Amino acid sequence: MASSYSKELLLDMYRKMYLIRRFEERAGQQYTLGKIAGFCHLYIGQEAVAVGPAEALRPDDYMLSAYRDHGQPLARGSDAGMVMAELMGRGTGYSKGKGGSMHIFDIEHHFYGGYGIVGGQIPLAAGMAFASRYRNEDRVTVCYFGDAAANQGSFHETLNMASKWKLPVIYICENNRYGMGTAISRTSAVPEIYKRASAYDMRGEPVDGMDVLTMYEAVKDAAEYCRAGKGPVLLEANTYRFRGHSMADPATYRTKQEVEAERKGDPIPKLRAYMQKHGMAEDSVFETIEEEVKALVDQAVKFADESPEPSLDELWRDTIVEEGEEDVRPRERVLGQKVNWPKYPSGQELKVTWDLEPREQAEAADKKAGLIR
Amino acid sequence: MSTNPYFNFESEPTMPELMYREALNQALAEEMERDANVYLIGEEVGRYNGAFKVSQGLLDKFGSARIIDAPIAELGFTGLSVGAAMVGLRPVVEMMTWNFAILAMDQIVNNAAKLRHMSGGQLRCPIVFRGPGGAGGRLSSQHSQALEANYAHFPGLKVIAPATPADAKGMLKAAIRDDNPVVMFEGERLYAIKGEVPEGEHVVPLGKADVKREGTDVTIITWSRMYYFCMQAAEELAKEGISVEVLDLRTLRPLDEEAILASVRKTNRAVIVEEGWVLAGVGASVVDIIQSKAFDDLDAPVERVTGLDVNMSYAANLENATQPDAPKIIAAVKKVLYREGA
Ligand SMILES: Cc1ncc(C[n+]2csc(CCOP(=O)(O)OP(=O)(O)O)c2C)c(N)n1
Description:
The complex is a heterodimer of chains A (about 375) and B (about 350).
Chain A: H1 7-32, H2 47-56, E1 62-65, H3 71-76, H4 80-87, E2 111-114, H5 122-134, E3 141-146, H6 153-164, E4 169-175, E5 178-179, E6 182-183, H7 184-187, E7 203-208, H8 212-227, E8 233-238, H9 256-263, H10 267-277, H11 283-306, H12 330-335, H13 359-368
Parallel strand pairs in A: 1-2, 1-3, 3-4, 4-8, 7-8
Antiparallel strand pairs in A: 5-6
Helix pairs in contact in A: 1-2, 1-10, 1-11, 2-8, 4-11, 5-6
Chain B: E1 17-19, H1 20-34, E2 38-42, H2 58-62, E3 67-69, H3 74-86, E4 90-94, H4 105-112, H5 115-118, E5 128-133, H6 140-143, H7 148-152, E6 158-160, H8 165-177, E7 182-187, E8 194-196, E9 210-213, E10 218-222, H9 226-239, E11 244-248, E12 251-253, H10 257-267, E13 270-273, H11 282-293, E14 303-305, H12 316-322, H13 326-336
Parallel strand pairs in B: 2-3, 2-4, 4-5, 5-7, 6-7, 10-11, 10-13, 13-14
Antiparallel strand pairs in B: 1-8, 6-12, 9-11
The complex binds thiamine diphosphate.
């Protein structure tokens, strides 16, 4: 039985998941050594939820996430050294060390940030999708958030607007079953998050978040739906984090048996098994990838470790935009590589041609409500 | 003595007279015409023509994609617009009043104000949050408060509070063109006042205070609606031979230190008049600037006239007693001049 996926695609997915896994393990180690401080939320176990969508999207699609935000940018092509440097508070990090682990931003790869307020990024994503509609662009926005964030008002307020205005946004709830130490079933009247979409007459689906191919298909399909102007989609990726909520959390609220059982569903060996079953790769191919990734991560740690702290005058930069000031292009600044920076149409070039609430539609609604106009 | 804020101090009009709300409307229309990235969103801004009629007629002119009736979800539509600004649109978010914007404060201070910093300079957030602020009108505690000090606290925001129709127009235009998040407090009780407003391209730079009345004996520093009480007090005091300079701050972040110090160095006495509460008010920072940089120029301690440190009541007499007014300002001026009755 042949697989319907190309070997290149699957190997790329494998490489990215493996990169996130190794990167996070090294981040955890650096935290223990005291080189990373603050909060550091690892992604180990959830790799498929970042990598499937990254492969399914176009490079110019927008993406944002919460504070568990190292995996998605790595999956989209961000520089591992610069992410690691950000975690270590170095001037060579994506945000010059001003953001840290919870605030990775890589605009060149259209990753619009990690956010530290639970649910705070959910309306931002709708706004980015709104901008795409406003400008007649067919790009979609993908927004990650956790299961606990689905209980925030921001989630409900935003889904209502996104659905009413048919915004091209895909919400991916990473349901790892816990918000810090509290099981989602203890705090949620409806722990199946995807069901909440129905309250806003929008499409909502559960997805196996431990399977990268399922994630890939779900997001490919959802993106097509969004690009066709049919409205937003809520995907609930059922996944599991193998580690604590953050490095500061020993995760004693879960039983050993539960974690052991979940580890059997590890998405990385799962993809490898799939490829082997379909005769798509020898052991040596995986070994080569793993060696390459290990070397890349070693180099990232070394780069970060040897990078200087930001200079003190950085304190006074990047708060208010001064007139004529340019935006910072991190990869250009740090690695000297030319970057592909997003360009937005100026006010003169832009023609706004769509209606949020077409006149006829509004008047029909009035009529139906018995209002005379 | 009358404490009516709709006091007309203007001399013979040489320019068209507009109401404060009309001046804002003109600014919005002109900026939306100039730049298609600008859109207006808020509760009742479209078909209802605005809760305070600031957006009168704009829906017909610009259509429903640019004049957007939002659900009553302040956090939601504010955050949505911050997201749109992150990718280059220039939203104007109308708060029905700033009292309700408290629900959206997370998006304004945790996202808009910090995006550029957290992204290390990769992002900018060109957005205006505007709406009526200020107390009065027998609306009791939840609908009647001056909240600008809250926002003036945050780096990453600009905070403006124009008093006159001309400033309202010019500063809104400047705010829309600014690449930073701007928080604009309009006077809920000022929308109907009239004043001369220059037509067309009239842009008032943010961060610049304005000497609205020249004087030599004492400086009164104020902004927004309190400006009118200060002018009224100044007129009264002039009759007694006291020459008052009135400095309208207009922008509360960044504060125009230069203008504050120049005026105080000239008059050697200062009274700060603020509608909001005394503790941690904007006026406290103005005092700090004066005492740390112009202490030797002072002939008397700086006085503050503020709203009382209580919640707003409904009862007319309690409401009046809570707010600053011309008699309280006059008393404070006399105190810094060591005059009788103070
Ligand atoms: C508004 C807000 N409240 C509380 C917190 C503290 N906090 C940080 S993460 C977290 C749990 C969120 O869990 P979830 O949304 O499921 O995401 P996960 O960590 O599982 O990825 C909490 C309570 C916060 N950062 N923001």
